[in-house]
Amino acid sequence: MHLPPLASALPVVLLSHRGPVTFTRDDDGDRTAGRGAGGLVTALTGLAGHLDHAVWVCVGASGEDAAVAREAAGSLVHLALDPEPRVLAHGDVPEGRTLLLRLVEVPPEVHDPFYGVISNPLLWFVQHRLHDLARTPSLGREDHRAFEQGYVVANQLAADAVVEQVEKAGGRAVVLLHDYHFYLVADLVRQRCPDALISHFVHIPWPGPDAWHVLPPDLRQRLLTGLLGADVVAFHTRADARAFVLCAQELLGLPVDLASMTVQTAGRRVRVRAYPISIDVPALEAVAHSDASDEHLVDLDHQVGEGSLVLRVDRTDPSKNIVRGFQAFDLMLSEHPELHGRVVFLALLQPSRQDVPEYASYLTEIGASATAVNAHHGTGAWQPVDLRFAHDMGLATAAYRRCDVLVVNAVADGMNLVAKEAVVLSERDMVLALSEATGAHDELGRFAVTLHPFDVAQQADALYEALTMPAQLRRDRREHAAWVVHRNDARRWLSAQLEDLAELAVTGDEASDAGHGE
Amino acid sequence: MHLPPLASALPVVLLSHRGPVTFTRDDDGDRTAGRGAGGLVTALTGLAGHLDHAVWVCVGASGEDAAVAREAAGSLVHLALDPEPRVLAHGDVPEGRTLLLRLVEVPPEVHDPFYGVISNPLLWFVQHRLHDLARTPSLGREDHRAFEQGYVVANQLAADAVVEQVEKAGGRAVVLLHDYHFYLVADLVRQRCPDALISHFVHIPWPGPDAWHVLPPDLRQRLLTGLLGADVVAFHTRADARAFVLCAQELLGLPVDLASMTVQTAGRRVRVRAYPISIDVPALEAVAHSDASDEHLVDLDHQVGEGSLVLRVDRTDPSKNIVRGFQAFDLMLSEHPELHGRVVFLALLQPSRQDVPEYASYLTEIGASATAVNAHHGTGAWQPVDLRFAHDMGLATAAYRRCDVLVVNAVADGMNLVAKEAVVLSERDMVLALSEATGAHDELGRFAVTLHPFDVAQQADALYEALTMPAQLRRDRREHAAWVVHRNDARRWLSAQLEDLAELAVTGDEASDAGHGE
Prior knowledge:
The structure is a homodimer.
Chain A: E1 12-16, E2 21-25, E3 31-35, H1 39-48, E4 55-59, H2 63-72, E5 77-80, E6 86-87, E7 98-104, H3 108-128, H4 141-168, E8 174-178, H5 185-192, E9 197-201, H6 209-212, H7 217-227, E10 232-235, H8 238-252, E11 256-257, E12 262-265, E13 268-274, H9 281-288, H10 291-304, E14 308-315, H11 322-335, E15 343-350, H12 357-377, E16 385-389, H13 393-402, E17 405-408, H14 417-425, E18 431-435, H15 440-444, E19 449-451, H16 456-467, H17 471-487, H18 490-507
Parallel strand pairs in A: 1-4, 1-8, 4-7, 8-9, 9-10, 10-13, 14-15, 14-17, 15-16, 17-18, 18-19
Antiparallel strand pairs in A: 2-3, 5-6, 5-7, 11-12, 12-13
Helix pairs in contact in A: 3-4, 4-5, 7-8, 10-13, 11-12, 11-16
C-alpha cells in the first residue's frame, strides 16, 4: 500500500504514552524491536509512516525502552516499519515507511505513580465512571504525592521533549498530543512555543461535570486548564465534546458557546471538536487473509458447525461489561431452550492491568459468570460459553469472519474499534449488538441492535433478536455499516484534523467554526 | 407560635410519600397517631398547618396506615397537630393547627416494588450516583415488572387521589408534588386537570445526563416526561436545576433556555427553579430547650470535659460518607498526636433501610472503620470515636449545642438539614465542616470549612483547621451562617414557591421569568 503523504504544510510532532515499537532483549541478549500494542498506536503507526518528517515522541513502556531512551539521550531514533520494525543505522536506506522516534526517559519513581496511580486507575476510572463512590476513590497523601511527583513530572518531561522538537522545527509546528496521560502538556508547550498549533485528542470517554467532582477541585481545574492550552481539544463523539465544553463552563467558570463549540480562555478561543477514529482497513485485511486466520477459521467452523457463533473480543477491563454479557446470554438460553446446543458464545479476552486489584477481582468475576452459564445449560456435547484468554489477531480475525453476532456491551467506551473491525471482516453478515455507551454507536448504531449496558433483560432480548434476524436485513445492515467504516477510515480521521489545523494556521482566530470534524 | 396563613389564593393539594402522621396499634390494640419522620415531612407539617384548607395526600407507610386508608375509603381524615397529632371526630373543635389528610391505599404487592425496588434503591442510587457501575445495577425482568406493576401503578393511584381533590376544589388548585416517588404524577394530573397549577419538588440531588443513562432509555424518558407535566420543576440548588434542564435537552431532545431556565414541551414552557429548603427554627428551638436536651448536655459536658467534640448526625446511608469521615479522623490523629485524649468524634447514627443489602453491608463497614480508629489510638481513658445508634432529638440537639465541629462530608445530598440545625443551636460557635456536594454548601459554604468527599487527606486537614480555628473567626462565621438560616427559613421556602405559582396563575405563560426562587 503506497498512499500519498498526508497534507500538513507544517512539521508534525506527535505525543502518546506508548509508541510504535517496544524494545526487548531476545534469548541471546540482543535488542529486538516489536510493534506497539493498542488501537491508538496501531492507527497512528499506520498513519505516521505517511507523514513526512513527523517526529513521534513517546514514553518507553518497557525497561528496554527506557534503556534505548537513555542511550539516545534526546536524539532521534530512525525506524523502518516494514516488514517488521527495526532501528536504522546511519546511512541505511530502507524500503517502505519510516518513522522518527523520540523516546522520553521517565524514571521508574516518576513513571510508576504517573501511570500506575494517576493515569490508571484514577483518571481511567473517573472517565469511565467505574468508581463505587460510597467507597472509592479514597484519596490519601500518597495520591496527592503521585499527582505532584508522578503525573506532573512526567507531563513536564514529555513537554520538554515536545518543545525541543518544535524548536528544532523552527518554532512553528503542528503538535498532536494524545490521551489522558498528558492533560497538562498542551499548556506547558503553549507557554514556550506560542506559534505552535496544538491539538489534544482524548481517546477515552469524557463525562459531564458530575464525574469530575470525584477529583479534588485543585486537580480537576489543573487538568482542564492544561487541556485548554491546546487550540483544538478533540474527542471521538459530539457528546464527549459537548461534555467537555460544559466542564469548562461549570468547573472553570469560563464563557463557552455550545453552538460553535468553543471555550474562551485567556484571550484565546479553544475549539472543541469530534473526529471519530477508525481502523486501517488494508492492514486489517492483510491479517485476515493470512494462513493463521484461515487455519483458525477451519477450527471454528468445525467447532460451531451448523450453529451460531456469538463473539466478543475485549481486554478484561471492568468497563467492557463482560459479566453482564454472560448474564444476558444465560437469561436468553433460559428463555429460549430451542437454542440449546445451537449457539456458542466465544469470548476472546486479553487479561489487562492485573496489578490493579479492581482488575484482578473483575477477572475472577468473569470466570465465575462464564462458569455459571455452562453449569446451568451445558451438556456433554455443548458448552455454551467458550472463554479463551489470548491476544491473537489470527484467531480474532477468523472469529470476526465466522461470527453471527458480535457483542459490544461496554459500560463506557471512547470508540470501540472491535466493532469496526468485525463489520469489515464478517463473511456471514454478522449482526452487530452494540452498546449505546460506545463512541462507535454514533456511526454504527443505525445498523446495529442497540444494547443497554445496565439492563441484562434488554440485552437478552437484543441477543435473541440478533440471532433470529432475517438474512436480508442482516445483509443490508452489515453492508451499510462496512461502507461507513470504509469511507471514514483512519486516514480520513487524521486528515480531517490536519486540515482543520491547517485552516487555523492560515486564518488564525477568525477561522470559520465549521471544520472537518463531526 | 401563631403565624398568619400562607398566601395562596387557590386551594392547595400536597402529595408526598410519607405523611404528617403514622398510625400504629398500642399494647391495648387501640389505634394511635404519631408524628411522621423525615426532614421533608417535618418541614411540610410545620407549614401545612398554616395553609387554610390544604389537603395533604400521602401513602400510608405502615400496615396500620393502610388500614386507616382502607376505612377512610377516599374521604378526608381531619387531624389536629397540637400538642400531639390525633384524628378529630366530626364536630370536634380543636385548638391549634389542623390538617386535612387523604391517605392513598397502595396494596403491598404494588407498594413493595414501587418503594423497595424502584424508588429505593434504584432511583435513590441513580440520583446519588451510588452504583458500582461495573456491577450494579444489573436490571432483570423483575426490575422491569417492578417499574410497570409497582412504580407506575402507585403513581396512578396517587394521581387519582390528587385529581379527585383538585376536582372537588373546582378544577383550579395549586398542586404541590414531592420527590422521587412520584415522577409520573404531574403529567397524569395535567391530562385530567388542565387548569391546575402544578409544581413538582425534587428533594434529592439531580445529576446530569450521564447518571440517567444508567436507566433504560424508555424508563428515563418516561420519568422526565412525567415531571415535565408540571408548570414548575423545583430543586434545592441552581446546579440541580441546571442539570435537569440539560437532561431535558440531551435525553428528550427538547428545546431549552439555560438563561431563563425553561424547557419547551408540547406547546408549554416549563420553569425550572431552585428554592433551598430549610428548617422550622422555632420548633427546633423548642426541642433544644427541653429537659431531655438539657440532661443530655450535662452528660456530654461530663464526657468531653475540656476537650473538643466533633459531631455527625446521619442515617447510615452510603451517600453520607461515614466511613471516609472516620478514616480522615484517623489520619488527623496520626498526624497530630497533640490532639490525643483531647477530642471525641461522636457519631449519632440512625440505621436505615437495612433490608437493602448495600445498606446492611455499609453499616458493617461503618462499625469496622470506627473500631479501627479506636484500635489505632484509643487508651484506657480515651476512645476517640463514640458511635451511637439512636434517633433521639433530645440527644441530637444537646450534641448540636455542645459540639465544636459538625462534620457533613456527604458524597451527595440534596440539601442536608443537619447542617442548618446545628448552626442555629450551637452554643460554642461550632465550625461547620461541610461537603461541597451538599445543597447546603450553596448557602453555608462561605461560612464553613469545605470538605471534599472523596479526599480523605483533605478532610483530615480540614478537620484540623476546624478544630484549631481562632475563636473570633469561629464566632463570625457561625453567626453569619445562623443569620442565613433564620432569614431563609422553611416558611420562606414555601411562600416563595406559592408566590411564583400565584404569579403564574395571573399572568400565565407570559409570566416574567424572574420568580422568587434562587
